[in-house]
Amino acid sequence: MNAASPAGEKIGAATTAPVMELNDVTIGSGSGVEAVSVEGINWSVAAGDYWVIGGPPGAGKSDLLATMAGLYRPLKGRLRYFGKDIAELADEEFLAARLRFGLVFENGGRLFHHLTVAENIALPLRYHHRHPGETEQRVRQVLQAAGLASLANHTPGQIKHSWRQRVGLARALAACPEVLLLDNPLAGLGPLDSRWWREFLSLLSAGHNVLGGRPATLAVACHDLRPWADQGKQFALLKQRRWLPVGGRAELACSDEPLLGELLAPDFGAATG
Amino acid sequence: MENRSAAAPQPGLEHAPTTPWLLGHLDSIGRNIIGSLQTAQGLIAFTLITLGVAVTRFNASPRVIHPLIRSQIYRAGVRLLPIISFLACALGLMIIGQTVALLTRVGAQNLAGTVMVTVVVRELGPLAAALVVLARVGAAYVIELGTARALGEVEALDALCIDPIHYMVIPRMVGLALSIFSLTVYFILVTLVSGYLFAFVQDVPLLPGDYFKQLAVALSWEDFALLALKTFSFGVVIAVVSCYHGLAQPLRLEQVSGATTRAVVQSVVACVSLDVLFIIVYLVT
C-alpha cells in the first residue's frame, strides 16, 4: 500500500501483507558522488507483486534496489522487512530477513571472476551451510532452469555478456529468495535473450519449479519501460530524486506524466543511444 | 591583471615574496600530516574491524573459508620456498659464514651461537621472510582487491549476505601469518646450516657439534615466543595494510601503482616499527 497515492493504495489493498515497506525513506548514493539519491519514498511491496520501476540513467534505481536488498541503510525514514523495522532487528534477524531477498546486478551480474559458473552459484549455498549434496543438487537445478548447464565449468571471462547476466540471475535464485530485485536486467541484451528474460520472469511471478512453485515477488528497475509495459503488474517512476507511483497497467496506459511518455516512446532506444 | 598586481612586491615589505613560498610549504606539510593521520585512522579502524570479524566469525563457514586459507598458504608459503632457500643460503654465506670466520680469528668462536641467535633468529629471519612475502604477495593483494572492488564484487558478496571482510581479508590474514611463521623457521634453519658450511669450507676450527650446542645454549624460550609473536604480527600487518589499500576505494587504472606503492611502504614502516617495539619490550623485560 502506498501512503502517498491513491493508485498505490489500490495496488497494496489487492494483495496480502507487505513483504517490504518504505515510509518516507531517503536513500543515499552508493557511488558517493551525491549524498542523497532519492527522497520521500513511500512504497509497499506485497507478496506476489511484480513492480517495474522506470527512470532515466542516474535517477537512483540501483541505489534504491541496493537499499531494498539491505546493502545500504536508508539515510532517513523507516524500512520494514516482513512487517519488522530493520532498525529494530538484531544482526542475525536482519541477516535472516536479507536472505529472503535476491539481487541481480546489471551489466553481467558482478560475478566472481576467479570462480566457475557453478562455483559462483554454489558460493552463497556453501557459505550459508547448506549440505554439500544438497548444494550440488540445487546448483544443477538452477543451472538447468537458467539454461546454463553446458557452461557450468566455464569462468565468467569465457562466456558472453548475456550468459553472464543469466549467471547473475541463477546465483540470486540459488538461495530460493522470496523477493527478487533486478537492476536493468535487459541492458545490452539482444531480442532473443530479452524475450527469454521476460518469459522467465513471468514464470517466476506465476510460480516456477526453481522456487518450489511459489510465486516470486519481483521488482525490476529499468530505463526503458517498453519491454515491461505488458509484463509488470505495478509501475513507478524515479524522477528528479522523487518517487512517483504510477499504478497498474491501466494507469500506465492513461498517465500523462511526461517522463513516462519518454520512457515508453517508440524511439526511446535511439534517443538514449 | 589583478593577480599580477596582487603578487607584486610592496614598498617597505622586504620579505613579502618569501611569504607565499613559506605558506605553500606549510600548507603542503600540513596536508601531508593530515593525510598521514587519516590513513593511520583508516588503517586502525580497518584492523579493528578485521580482528573483530576474525573473533566473531571464528570457524564460521569452514567449507568456504578453509580452502581459501589453504590456497593463501600455498601461494604465500609453499610457492615462496625456492626464493627463501636462495636468500637463506646467500645470507648464511654472507653474514654467518663471515661472522664465524671473524670470531674465530679473534678467538671468540664460543660467541658464535649467541651472535647467530641474535642476528638470525631474533632479527634477520622474521624480517627477511616478511619482506619477501610482502614483495611477492602483499603487493599483488592491492591489485587483486582493488580490481574486485572496482568490478563490484564487494557489493555482490554483500548482496549474497557474505561478509566481504570474512571472505576476502580473513583468509589472506591467516594465510600470511602462518606462511611468514613457517617461512621464517625454514629460513633460519637453512641460514644456520649454510652459514656453518661456508665457515667449514674456510677451515674454521669449529666442530658441528660445538656450533649447534652453542646455538642451543643461546636460545631461550623467549626467543621462540618472540619469533612466533613477531611473525604472526608481521603477517597480520602486511595483510591488513595491503587489503586496506585494495578495498578502501574502487581503484581506477591510474591509481593502482600509487596504492600499491603506499601499501608496500606502509607495510615496511609498520613491520620495522613493530620490530623495534618488540626489541624494546624484550630488552625491558
Describe what you observe in this structure:
- The complex is a heterodimer of chains A (273) and B (285).
- Chain A is of the alpha/beta class.
- Chain A has a domain at 109-171.
- Chain A is 35% helix and 23% strand.
- Chain A is built from 10 helices and 10 strands.
- Chain A has helices at 6-13, 61-68, 91-98, 117-127, 132-145, 161-174, 191-206, 249-254, 258-263, 268-272, and strands at residues 18-28, 36-46, 50-54, 76-81, 84-85, 101-104, 179-183, 217-222, 234-239, 242-247.
- In chain A, the strands form 2 sheets. Chain A has a 6-stranded mixed β-sheet, with helices on both faces. In chain A, strands 2-1-4-5 form a 4-stranded antiparallel β-sheet, covered by helices on one side.
- In chain A, a hairpin with a 2-residue loop joins β9 (234-239) and β10 (242-247).
- The radius of gyration of chain A is 18 Å and the shape is globular.
- Chain B has 285 residues and is mainly alpha-helical.
- Chain B has one domain (62-284).
- Chain B is 83% helix and 0% strand.
- In chain B, α4 packs parallel to α7 and α5 runs antiparallel to α7.
- The N and C termini of chain B lie far apart (68 Å).
Assembly state (oligomeric): heterodimer
Please tally the helical runs of chain A, counting DSSP H or I stretches of 4 or more residues. 10
Distance between the termini of chain A: 36 Å
Counting helices, strands and paired strands, the structural category of chain A is: alpha/beta
Q: How many strands of chain A?
A: 10
CA gyration radius of chain A, whole angstroms: 18 Å
Low-pLDDT stretches of chain A are 1-15
Structural class of chain B: mainly alpha
| H and E string of chain A | HEEEHEEHEHHHEHEEEHHH
Q: Cα distance, first to last residue of chain B?
A: 68 Å
